[in-house]
Design a protein that fits this description.
- By secondary structure, the protein is an all-alpha fold.
- Helix content is 64%, strand content 0%.
- Helix 2 packs antiparallel against helix 3.
- The longest helix is centred in the first third of the chain and has 25 residues.
- It is globular and about 50 Å long.
């Protein structure tokens, strides 16, 4: 029987899953490439986001670039600060962090957003919101403790250093 109360539940769950996959891929790509040249990676991200958004606007919008002049300041503010500054700081901050640690810190984005809104914009927080922030923070602290109560030690997230391979010694028995 179809869900008549929330007919788009499957779509929304699929979008959340897709977002998580891309979020994970982004963290892993930054881990792989940020050590090479973090600033170049950030500039490439900025250019790619700008290009993809311009292309999407050309395809999706009925009059693609109507009103851009009137909205230029908010567009530049959002684009330069969120993508330009935000991703650049993320790349530099994640450059020397393990991907698992970076993911845990970045999963607190919504907590930082709601607390920042309350502190800077005077938005009110409900008890449920405080509880959610506390649960998220508690989950991250528990994930970093290492050993569950009465359990075996959790394997380290540190990369394993393997010994160098043995030299290839072949005996010629011809």
């Amino acid at each position: 029987q179809p869900n008549t109360l929330f007919p788009y539940t499957t779509l929304f769950r699929s979008l959340v899953l897709a977002c998580a996959v891309f979020f994970t891929g982004h963290i892993l790509l930054i881990d792989a490439f940020a050590r090479l040249d973090a600033l170049r990676l950030s500039i490439t991200q900025f250019g790619t986001c700008a290009g993809l958004n311009l292309a999407a606007a050309a395809v999706v919008e009925p009059v693609p670039y109507a009103g851009v002049g009137a909205a230029l300041l908010p567009i530049l503010y959002g684009g330069v600060l969120s993508v330009g500054v935000g991703y650049t700081l993320q790349v530099f901050g994640q450059r020397d962090a393990l991907p698992a640690h970076a993911a845990l810190i970045m999963s607190m984005e919504s907590v930082f957003g709601v607390v920042g809104g309350a502190m800077l914009l005077g938005e009110s927080m409900t008890g449920r919101m405080y509880a959610g922030c506390g649960l998220m923070l508690g989950g991250i602290v528990l994930a970093q403790l290492g050993t569950p109560a009465g359990g075996a030690p959790v394997p380290s997230a540190e990369p394993t250093v393997l010994p160098p391979p043995a030299p290839d010694v072949r005996l010629d028995r011809s």
